[in-house]
Amino acid sequence: MTNTVQFPVLGLTFTLHPVAFEVFGVQVYWYGILIGIGFLLAVVYGFASCKVMHINKDHLTDAIIGGMIGGIVGARLYYVLFYAGDRYLKNPLEIFDIKGGGLGIYGGIIGGLLVGGLVARWRKMHVGAVLDVASIGYLIGQGIGRWGNFVNQEAFGTATDLPWGMYSEKTAEVVVGNVHPCFLYESLACLLGALCLHIFTRKFRRYDGQTFLLYVLWYGIVRFFIEGLRTDSLLLPGIDLRVSQVLAGASAIAAVILLILFRKKTSLSGCGSEKIMELNGIESAASTSDMQIDGGAESTIFAGMSAEEAKEQVESSMREVKAAPAEKKELQENADEPEKDPESTEEPEPAQDEPAQEGTEEEEKDGSAD
Question: Could you say which of 112, 120, 123, 297 would form a disulfide bridge with 130 (CB–CB 3.0 to 4.6 Å)?
Answer without folding.
Answer: 120
